[in-house]
Amino acid sequence: MTRSKRVLDGVLLFDKPLQLSSNVALQKVRRLFRAEKAGHTGTLDPLATGLLPICFGEATKFTHALLDADKRYLATVRLGQRTSTGDAEGEVVEQRAVKVDAEQLHQVLRAFTGVIHQLPPMYSALKYQGKPLYEYFRQGETVERAARPVSIHELNLQHWAGDELVLDVRCSKGTYIRTLAEDIGEALGCGAHLAGLRRTGIGDFHLGDALTLPQLEAMDEAGRDARLMPLDSLVLNLPKLELDAVQAGRLAQGQRLALQDGRPDGRRRMYVAEAFIGLGDLSAGRLSPDRLLSRIAKAAAGQKST
Questions:
Q1: Mean pLDDT, to the nearest integer, of 84-111?
Q2: Which domains does the chain have, with CATH numbers?
Q3: What is the pTM (predicted TM-score) of this model?
Q4: Is 290 in the active site?
Q5: How buried is residue 39: exposed, middle or buried, by Cβ count under 10 Å (0-12/13-18/19+)?
Q6: What number is the average pLDDT over the span 76-80?
Q7: Contact yes or no for 191/81 (Cβ under 8 A)
Q8: CA 195, 200, 204: angle at the middle one, nearest 5?
Q9: Are strands 266-272 and 275-283 parallel, antiparallel or unpaired?
Q10: What stretch of H or E contains 150?
Q11: Closest to 36 in 3D by CA, of 60, 20, 16, 19
Q12: What is the pLDDT of residues 27-62, one digit of tens each?
């Protein structure tokens, strides 16, 4: 018998396994929790594993915070082979001898640290004229693309054996790790492709705190629920703002508040009596509602009708 779905709010750190798409992984976790509503915070390819935060219920309103956050990966790079897709999924299109010494490798890694420019790969979900680039790729077409700046905050060699490197990469949003692998290979003069990828961090979240599918399946429902993080865990990087119930009600009715908190303009995470109620935007001494929890809006609607 199919169990009924339930209203559930919170964030789960999930360790996505190999070969599952992010959406399939999401649906498996959603069914385990019997959640009415769920979403993830940025896709991982089926050939990638690692950290995939899954948001339930009201938490889906705040997924944008992680889409913009820095990411961290362990990237396995195979030297001497270029593939059609830049990763292990594609066909080998070129092989070259690998003649790399330690000094040359470290010089190249230093050169790719900081702000670099990347040409988005054709085998990607980036859209051109409303269609993902990978659809053009599958049709044998190539479209004009402009190089884009990204930031490689850290690029450290974790392991090197023969033709295989394992790199620890901390980077800005929008970074293509397969492109980074290919570009490093070209700079070394031997070509390369991305042989494996594991996401180990997003913002302040770490893979060490994530649960695998077998671990979740082995838990009872109370155990799984206990591993959910609160709604505001996605936005703890934003300044905190404490309001009273009257102010919160006015925001929920769409009003702006005259308010100064002595900090630069920008988003605020807002609380009433230490209870998180959503996000506001403070600009020029005016606080506007941004993303509020549904219960706050419903309470305001009740006040209007009485």
A1: 95
A2: 10-68+204-232 (3.30.2350.10), 71-202 (3.30.2350.10), 238-305 (2.30.130.10)
A3: 0.89
A4: no
A5: middle
A6: 98
A7: yes
A8: 150
A9: antiparallel
A10: strand 148-161
A11: 60
A12: 999 999 999 999 988 788 888 999 999 999 999 999
